[in-house]
Structures are given as C-alpha cells and as structure tokens.
Amino acid sequence: MTKNNKLKDIKFTDPQLQEFFDALGEDSNKKIQLFYYFALTTGLRVNEILNLSYGNIEDKNSLLSLKSSKKDEIDLILSDQLLEVIKNEHKENPSDIYIFQSKKSNNVLNQPPKPISRQSVNYAFKKANDGTGIPITPNKLRHMYATEFFDKISMQGSHVLNEKTLKKFR
C-alpha cells in the first residue's frame, strides 16, 4: 500500500467527528476541544499548535503566522469560526500568552508560562478514544486535513486543465 492510499483510509464521518469532540469535552476541557478544532481545520503538527501564542494571529486578515518545526514560515488564513473561538478564548484568559497555555504554569512562582503538554493532549485523545471506540489521534486529524486539502486542489486543477494536459503528469 502506498503512502497516499494510507492517507485516503483516514476518513471519519461527521457524526464520528462530533461524537469524538463531545467526548473530549466530557472532562470540561475546552483547551483540548480547541486543540481538536485547530488540528481538524489547519493541518498543523501537534507541537506547532501547542506553541501558538496570541501574537501569532493577526485579527484584521484572519492570518496565522508561525515558523514550522522544520523552520519554514507558515501563513494560514483562519476560518471566521476558528478566529471567533480564539478571540473568545483570549477574552476569557487575557493574561495568557499561549493559546493553549497550561494553567499549572500559572500557579508556580517564578515559572514562565508554558503551553499544555503533548502528553496531556495524547491522554485526552486516548480517553475519548476508549470512550467512543473512534480511533482519532492528532496525527490522523493532520492527515485527514491533508487528504481533504489534496482532494479539493485536485478537483480545482481538473477543472482548469483538460484531460490531455493531465495525462502528461501521469
């Protein structure tokens, strides 16, 4: 099986995605639900999401700018819904630097703020996984986003290029 076929196998129905999202919130963990929403709609890596600060976001253009783990510059246009959720999160936690700031680091004197840990994300996903039987992981959300993105781009390209031109690439 090629790598692309593996990616195409990562599909979840809308009801499964919603059920998993709801399961993540059973412990009243809005940060993990926000992480899930971010991963589902941006395709960013776990560490890229966790290390996002409010300074990475430009409200005016709905633009998210960051350096990737591979040191590349990434600019993403955020959906209006995601931008609104981030703004609300910042209103609720105006002193936070990170979007996914750990509340534990706020309670330790002389400790700089830190994002929540990758382990806490994995633990929450595992718990939701066990509760729902839906095998979603942060990495699968990234791959699902990439597959959807690729499919949309492929569809746009096929409308622009005729079949004869497309055969040159095959």
Describe the fold and architecture.
This protein has helices spanning 3-8, 14-24, 30-42, 46-50, 80-92, 103-106, 118-132, 138-160, 163-167, and strands at residues 57-58, 63-67, 73-77. With 170 residues, the chain is mainly α. The protein has one domain (12-167): Intergrase catalytic core (hpI Integrase, Chain A, Orthogonal Bundle). Strands 1-2-3 form a 3-stranded antiparallel beta sheet, with no helix packed on it. A hairpin with a 4-residue loop joins strand 1 and strand 2. The chain is globular. It starts with a helix and ends with a helix.
Number of strands: 3
> What percent of the residues sit in helical stretches (DSSP H or I)?
55-70%
Number of helices: 9
Radius of gyration: 18 Å
Measured between the Cα atoms of the first and last residue, the distance is 18 Å
Largest sheet strand order: 1-2-3
Q: Which architecture name does CATH use?
A: Orthogonal Bundle
Q: How much of the sequence is in beta strands? A: 5-15%
Q: What is the CATH superfamily label?
A: Intergrase catalytic core
What is the average of the pLDDT values? 82
CATH fold descriptor: hpI Integrase, Chain A
For this structure, what is the CATH class?
Mainly Alpha
Inertia-based shape: globular
Integer tally of domains: 1
The helix-strand sequence is HHHHEEEHHHHH
* Main beta sheet: 3 strands, antiparallel
Structural class: mainly alpha
Report the uncertain regions.
none
